[in-house]
Amino acid sequence: MSTDHNCIFCKIAAGQIPAKKFYEDDELIAFHDIRPAAPVHFLVIPKLHLASLNEAGPEHAALLGRMLELAPKLAREQGATNGFRTVINTGPDGGQEVYHLHMHVMGGPRPWKQG
Ligand code: 5GP
Ligand code: ZN
Fold first, then answer.
1. Lesser CB count within 10 Å: N end or C end of the chain?
2. Smallest Cα–Cα separation from 101: which of 41, 34, 54?
3. Is 97 within 8 Å of 103 (Cβ atoms)?
4. Are the CB atoms for 31 and 21 separated by under 8 Å?
5. Is 1 a domain residue?
């Protein structure tokens, strides 16, 4: 399934609910996290609904590669000029809250927010 109509990130990708979106191409979008844990904190998501990394297969390898390849460029543009952290939470023990694959990109001057 390419879109899950109950999925909040599918709705953001479709422009049905607002988000601070700052990047979009054929396959990916990036928008600021609503609860930033660092001065720069955004999410890169595929437009395709994939619930998590657990649902990714070999056919998604290029898409996953593009997400990683995009991170440094967007991080710099958003002001993370001295490095950044990438995180993909997967499943309950991975602390995943939203079941549409997303990569956190966090950066900016430390200290970052605690918790
Ligand atoms: P997870 O724990 O699933 O890796 O992270 C989900 C992230 O999505 C959290 O950091 C949370 O703040 C963010 N988030 C959840 N709902 C929304 C939303 O409606 N808009 C935006 N911009 N971020 C959201
Ligand atoms: Zn979705």
1. C
2. 54
3. no
4. yes
5. no
Question: How much is the pTM?
Answer: 0.97
Enter the tokens of residue 19: 């988000």
Q: Is the CB of 93 under 6 A from ligand 1?
A: no
- Centroid of ligand 1 to alpha carbon of 103 (angstroms): 10
pLDDT in tens, the chain (115 residues): 577 879 999 999 999 999 999 999 999 999 999 999 999 999 999 999 999 999 999 999 999 999 999 999 999 999 999 999 999 999 999 999 999 999 999 999 999 987 6
Q: Is residue 23 domain-resident?
A: yes
Using alpha carbons, select from 3, 23, 25, 22 the residue that is nearest to residue 14. Answer: 3
CATH number of the domain at 77, please.
Answer: 3.30.428.10
The answer, yes or no, to whether any atom of ligand 1 lies below 6 A from the CB of 53, is no
User: 38-62: per-residue pLDDT in tens?
Assistant: 999 999 999 999 999 999 999 999 9
How many domains does the chain fold into? 1
Does residue 41 have an active-site annotation? no
Residue 3 domain flag: no
Q: Is residue 52 in some structural domain? A: yes
Q: What is the extent of the structural domain holding 43?
A: 8-113
